[in-house]
Amino acid sequence: MVIGPRQDRRPTMNDVAARAQVGLRTVSRYVNGMTNINPEMAERIRSAIEELGYRRNLAAASIRPGQTSGVIGLVIGDLANPYWAALARSVESVAAETGLLLTIASSEEDGARHDWVVERLLQQQVDMIIDVAPRTVGRSWSHWSPPLPPVVFVDRPGDLAGADTVLADNRGGTRDAVAALLAGGARRIAFVGDDRALHTMDERYEGYLLAHAQHGVVVDPTLVFETSHSSGQAVDLVARLLREGRADALFAANNRAAVGALLAFRTVGTRLPIIGFDDFEAAPLFDPPLSVVAQDVEAMGRAAVRAGLDRLQGDDGPARVQVLPTTLQLRGSERP
Amino acid sequence: MVIGPRQDRRPTMNDVAARAQVGLRTVSRYVNGMTNINPEMAERIRSAIEELGYRRNLAAASIRPGQTSGVIGLVIGDLANPYWAALARSVESVAAETGLLLTIASSEEDGARHDWVVERLLQQQVDMIIDVAPRTVGRSWSHWSPPLPPVVFVDRPGDLAGADTVLADNRGGTRDAVAALLAGGARRIAFVGDDRALHTMDERYEGYLLAHAQHGVVVDPTLVFETSHSSGQAVDLVARLLREGRADALFAANNRAAVGALLAFRTVGTRLPIIGFDDFEAAPLFDPPLSVVAQDVEAMGRAAVRAGLDRLQGDDGPARVQVLPTTLQLRGSERP
Question: Which of B142, B171, B226, B248 ranks highest by number of CB atoms within 10 Å?
Fold first, then answer.
């Protein structure tokens, strides 16, 4: 009589051992890829696995030290934002090349939620965590007791000693964009941005200051806005600016701000020269096409995964910070 | 006297059930985010959870056999497409509400890659798989030996008996859009679409035929294109149509086709009335704003997760197909 598993549960390694008439240890060695197994036994195990539909339980396996879950955990702001979606896409595609799955969790820029998803990723024993620090900071990374998987910060630095970091050149990219607006004759360039507590915002603001300093133009602090957290807030802010007539150009410090500004142009029926930070698919389709500082999101995702993989391979060198260059795409919207 | 849990252990679901004076199953359903619970009971459970400080212990749950890994697996086409990103976003947000993580994998519309990611998700023992069948079909779902976690097909039907399915009303949405173009006087409406082997394309094509039939207008089959797999291909196709002058309006059968058509309008310097299928953030920002058939992606993601959770709770009723309505958003681009 053939002994099969009960129908109401998944077949276990024990079932495979019974069916193949070999010891549990041998099945375990086979399943874990050992090759020094008697070929006849290996063949019996292979058949038993196929007949029973046995599948290795990686969720269980991953709690054994030294094993791998085969999963990268990625914590981003929010999948609805095309910038994060592009980053996720890039990480996912590199992960797939190396046979890894990707678990994505959104922090919604909230510290408590960020900590919850990190906790859950650690429970899942992911192989590495690629983390975007949220706007409102939660616990310090030192809160989690070691051992931690490799952690790589992307887009913004994080607070874990020894972790690698991949950033874009926010300062240089913004400096070039604002310089282009100044070169076009603008003298009252509004900075439409988010909270400067965000690393990226602070760097972009510095780039804005740098360009002004290089051109000998004094910045009017009443043209610097840190309150554009969403495209809706940017709409209101830019609409007010247009009505007041105080600005002669806009630097939109992220894609939300740029979309909001374009919506305000449409609502108010007038426009200003504008350059945005972050490229997105629709940017060239507007009238005029939107000029942007483009980050190489593909390269950032790739660099982050590679950094984590290097650490998994035992690289225990000092933490590295990579700053990837940006590209200024001038398409027309920078002109009056 | 209020009966509380002993101080030396975490409160369990049993403690919550005892405190709220409801059955364990009801607490479990509440904790798993089910909404069809007697409101008075739900309120008692909510209070009990708060008073006891009960927290669902997913870490323990995931290592007990037959229990949950706390992860939803989602197989989509490609995160770079805003439609899939929006779907992923919706599933992720419902997952988070119920304490679940989300593992996302792209099939790139390729059957072999699809099968690889499904295999990996099964190894990870995900709690459910929400699956978008790829354009080129791989193995049949019957290839994988049971037991499988609940599988829910979304956007397109799949080939697993008993699996639930969540679709948009592609046929009705397209019929209404094409009817609006016909009502505006168009008589030679090009269908710019992808391969009709895709369920969604076939349904949209049927909607296009239906609207013509209802208006007593004969379709010119040389205006029906199934070769627009990417926005680049749509650009070429629409640019040729514009130069030939054979069409007097366009139905862009997905967001790639719509973006390609707008790019072609810009390149050629002329435009046609157009309505697209799928809304996206930039659609209202074009000049004129793009009219679209909008799917309720949020509701689709929610319905898919809920269907899977119901199955996890033991619902073994016959497979359900939910077809969610679409909305025609007329913004101006449908006019000459």
Answer: B171
